[in-house]
Amino acid sequence: MNLKKNTLFIAKWILICVLIGFFSGSASAFFLVALEQVTQIREHNHFIIWFLPLGGLGIGFLYHYLGKEVVKGNNILLEEYENPQKTIPFKMAPLVLLGTLITHLFGGSAGREGTAVQMGGAIADQFTKFFKLNTSERKTLLVLGISAGFASVFGTPLAGALFALEVLRGSKTRLKSVILSFLIAYIAYYTVAFWQVKHTHYHIPIVPEITVNNLGWVVLVGILFGLTAMLFSRTTHLWGQLFSKTIAFAPIRPFLGGLILVIVIYYIGTTKYIGLGIPTIIESFTTPNPWQDFLLKILFTGFTLGAGFKGGEVTPLFFIGATLGSALSLFVPLPIALLAGLGFVAVFSGATHTPIACSVMGIELFGLESGLFIVVACTLAYFFSGSVGIYQSQIVKGTKYHLYQRLKRKNLTDL
User: Fold this and answer.
1) What is the pLDDT of residue 219?
2) pLDDT of residue 122
3) For 355, what's the count of Cα atoms within 13 Å in the CB-facing half-sphere?
4) 40: domain CATH number?
5) Do 218 and 283 lie in a common domain?
């Protein structure tokens, strides 16, 4: 009897993983193709950027009248995991998809991880009623949705599985969730491959020897990457608070934000800091970037998301970290590609409090040869990024949490 029960239990969760993995992976594949299409339209028709305020107004009205309960985005997934209340409305998926495509079509500076994770979470949570799952099992579904969304949109299944577990580690994670998170990450990853959608590839051709001197430089840049992550998180939250306090009617926020962005883009005379910025990220691995690139991307992305446009923060974090690392190559005696790669994952690590997932992501993307440098940079960025990340509802636990609590008690920091 127990054998039959266990077999049915395993079969049920494998079926759930296959269904969520396939649907989430397919949604990410469609999203990646659509995102590339709207980006190409914008890049070949720069005049369309002048319509960014109207695009913002459209997003504002969409969420004001149809999506008030899902406007908090990724934070809803974190809150529902910590304190389950009700099933996440499925409309979160199409709303964030449409909002992100509009943002990128008209020239907002945003990413794609938030969109994929929200779609994955919304899709996964719909299976709660279908399979009649309890609260604990529903938490597992949310882990699976985040894992599937992240793994499929970036093409990094190991990092995707670990990210879902690490970003939610404020609560106790069951072994079942760990195993299933890895299973569904690969299902979603191979689903994107099945649809023949490609991911961007990066390469670090030269990795120096592991010496005390080289590790010392990595420690220094790791700290700088952490402080940069803190600046990005604080700036993004600051713009969001400023818009919400000064403009009562939510749909007007992205309209006015879009208007200001259009004027700034016209004034600086470049579209380098809008959209995902993938070409600049790729270039940063071979050519030193101007020092202002990472600062302007922080400003553009924080303002775009704070005003109410949709999209993720992670790809802009890649841009910020890679361009900062690239600029540092003029002063730090390490290969430019290594510095860009370290910044790529380390700033992300600091902003999301996920050093393990980001270290693994770096190894998945850049190879095991640079693994030690990646781990050191991601760990230090994590510790030096402060206690507030890009997800306001994230509960930060572990060594970093206890360290900051001890410092606060001694009045040594207000981070």
Assistant:
1) 98
2) 97
3) 24
4) 1.10.3080.10
5) yes
Q: How far apart are CA 116 and CA 189, in angstroms?
A: 12
Q: Is the separation of the CB atoms in 59 and 253 below 8 Å?
A: no
If one counts the domains in the chain, the total is 2
Task: Give the structural domain span for 243.
Answer: 212-409
Which residue positions in the chain have pLDDT lower than 70?
Answer: 1, 170-172, 396-415
Predicted pLDDT at 355:
96
Looking at residue 397, what is its pLDDT?
Answer: 61
> CA-to-CA distance for 274 and 251, rounded, in angstroms?
21
In a domain, 127, yes or no: yes
Tell me the chain's radius of gyration from C-alpha atoms: 21
| pLDDT value at residue 394 | 81
| Residue 175: C-alpha distances to residues 82, 128, 165, 172, 228 (Å) | 17, 19, 11, 10, 34
Provide the mean pLDDT of the chain.
93
Residues 219 and 352 in one domain: yes
- Is the pTM value of this prediction over 0.85? yes
Full 3-state SS string of 184-240: HHHHHHHHHHHCCCCCCCCCCCCCCCCCHHHHHHHHHHHHHHHHHHHHHHHHHHHHH
What are the Cα distances from residue 6, in Å, to 132, 173, 187?
A: 17, 21, 22
Please check whether residues 38 and 118 belong to one and the same domain: yes
